[in-house]
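Consortium newsletter contribution from the modelling node. Members have asked for a concrete example of what our holo predictions look like. Here is one, prepared for the phosphoric acid mono(formamide)ester complex that several groups have been discussing at recent meetings.
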Amino acid sequence: MVTPKWTKRSLLGIQHLTGDEISYLLDISGEYRKAKTNGNFPSGCLEGKTIVNLFLEPSTRTRVAFELAAKGLQADVITIAEKSSSLTKGESLRDTARNIQALGADGIILRHSSPGAAQFLDNIVDVPVINAGDGAHEHPSQALLDLFTLREKLGSLKGKKVTILGDILFSRVARSNIWGLLKMGAKVTLAGPSTLVPKKMEELGLTVTYNLKKAVSNTDAIMLLRIQHERQTQTHFPSLTEYSKMFGLREGDSQPDSRTIILHPGPINRGVEIDSTLADSPQSVILDQVTNGVSVRMAILDACCSSTY
Ligand code: CP
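And here is the predicted structure:
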């Protein structure tokens, strides 16, 4: 049995978690993963509770995984998308959240385009808030499922080399993973165009390179990122063709070693950040990440929402 090491009400990011808190969530995720494999499902720790999935930005993986996770814990789940909510009639996020709480929600999962939106909501409501991605700030559940998948495939993360490749500047996935990987003792390299990978990030205790060959050789894992066009207000490289030539992962010259595993949070833009041959190769653990996302979100909901606040 795992020793309880979780005292937080909400999960707003990875930056302010300790290594022990991350390990705790990963261990609980492992318990849920095992239970699912052994057919000991579902667990009723959220029986009688209502979880609201407030998704104000598009999502497939995160939204569905949180829904499945909450249902797996026997919660009632309600999903609200921006277009079908009264936000389109001018209601503020603050009023929407207060109304959701007044309707009896026991937890709110929020995806929003503004950095800090989850923290904002957490200051307003008295129920747990789980950040499902806030602008370019953080995407903690994604980082936890990435760490879980890395640990599943590579064992302890201490000393493991992980390269994050692509649009670091606008990526909440990168930000959450950088915090998580460093706290778990991994050696992190950031790579991509210099316009999207600030050299200053080396101050965090990681390595920055603009050389693809260097970035993908002698590493245990490569985490690819999609270009976040929706967050960029100006172009940061000449064209997608140019980007793909310089930083796209494909067979040939800049191909990673066969022992290196390839991760991607999705959605993938095939032919841009990765070619199909590698995306669908045995090195790719992209669909394992998606599957693990359900167990990891069960752990998050269990930790944050199974107690009364
Ligand atoms: N990785 C991720 O956040 O995917 P979705 O946008 O589909 O949720």
